[in-house]
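Quick start: what a row looks like.
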Amino acid sequence: MTSYDIEGFIFDKDAVSTQARTDERYSNWPAVYTLRNDQSIYVGESRNVASRIRQHLASGTKNDLQHVQIILDRTFNKSAALDLEAYLIERLGGDGRYSVLNRNKGIVDSDYFDRNEYRKTFERIFGSLYDRGLFTRSLPEIENADLFKLSPFKALTPEQAMAVEDILRDLLHRSPDSGNEVPIVVQGDPGTGKTVVAIYLMKLLADIATAEDTELDTSLDDTDARFTEFFTAANRDRLSPLAIGFVVPQQSLRASVAEVFKRTPYLERSMVLDPFAVGESEQHFDVLVVDEAHRLNQRANQPSASQNSRFTEINRKLFGDDESHYTQLDWIKQKSEHQILFLDGAQSVRPADIPRSTWESVLETARTVDRHHELHSQMRVQAGRGYIDYVRAVLRSEAPARQAFADYEILLFEDFKSMHDRIRERDAEHGLARLVAGYAWEWKSKKDKSLPDIVLDGHGLQWNRTTKDWINSRTSLDEVGSIHTVQGYDLNYAGVIIGPDLSFDPEQQRIVFSRAHYFDKKGKENNPRLGLEFKDEDLLEYVVNIYGVLLTRGIKGTYVYVCDPDLRKHLAPYFTQSGREYSRSDLDEAPRRAIDSSTPLASGLEAQPRRAARE
């Protein structure tokens, strides 16, 4: 027996009054409601839903909406109603059926008594609304989609909300001519929600800048909305003339974000830019938000001759010459008054990208002037932040104590096909289960589509056939994705192939890099322009970061296949082997070498990114 009721009627004053007379909960009970027409929808919450809907009618801002649905539940309290409001906004945004009209005024993802049980009720409510045609896709389909994962309609964690609030206050209190100041920096490990915060911030700035006079009326808002205080006429006038851009260096992620912006009211696809587009633009930006800033380039040989020419032309246009020290970060600073950088140095995987020393300087300065924000809470991997630290320590030959992670599946496979079969099973059950690998094999199928690229234990597969939205492509389940197709994305299960580019040296008791098995030419070539030669130890840093990224994509679990026998033996005690649980004695016999804290792999920023393997 359900505890909730869903009532529907026409969006007019008489219909609201009639409903209110038949049910006293319309005027004195926490409720959630939707207002919609065939294209658009608004979701709200109120203790006096009849009064709230009359206020909407009187304001005239939603006169083009035609239908009302009210969700009442005899067990609801204020916290549950607010949570359901956020739950529905997120999933309506991810479904794509309607244009969601809500402004991002800031419902925070807060815990409350018996929340897990309420969430079960929310799923049943979703099912009822799905049956009534409010949604076009199932709950798993929505929650696995990029439109949901990258949507700005999020209930932020308290930590994320604090970062957004501090950034917003900082921007609003800067004088209009205070450009070339220290950038705001948001730093965080994989899965801490950097991209979520960046996109949310873009939507919030756009919402304030485009707010109607009636939308500045706080009588129509919940006091729980964290950012309501920023919706003022003064702030709207401050933000509305500003040119704001969103920079994403990676091609695949950029395309996905652009699609989200295209579908989101008050955001535009044209806001999403690559660094070259920023440098070449005739427009000067007031604010540039840079996601995955660690992927910005320094002056190095680009993937194509045309990009080398563009780099030269941009430098000359912006600075008058093509000095070697200019980077894409310099372009960002030159082309904007204010910069907000989201980064994680440990996800840098390419020598051509901005060096560690630059980011260390940026971070140090940002901390000095209180423009540094760090995200800690793990939002992706169900095993928590401890898993991120554990994987990185294992890859750095630090021999951490064996850990078990509740409700997270970590398996080491001896047979490649068995891992592929498990990935297929998990994809059938949960969706978004994929194989990924380091660039340790040639891309033979680029020239001959009949050839496999990766053959292990008699089982052959090809590299990803597309670089854009590969995860959701039709053939992705039977392909292997590179670092550049998955960085910035979530998977439910990741099957990670650690190729022969990494091996274990029994004499040194450490993981080492094999240049002969690393096939990213741009990922290992020297930089004569800057006088840089990359030794194997330098490249080890980048390749370790690559596998660190791949091993932290899975929300529910990670599977591992290791090509080098010695490395497989070395890693086995730290993971559960498929079909076998390792004992304490196994772990005690594992090699233990704590890496010197002065070496690059133990430093705070780690390495820099390499180019997309198959762009």
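That is the whole record. The chain has 21 helices and 21 strands. Residues 581-615 have pLDDT under 50 and may be disordered.
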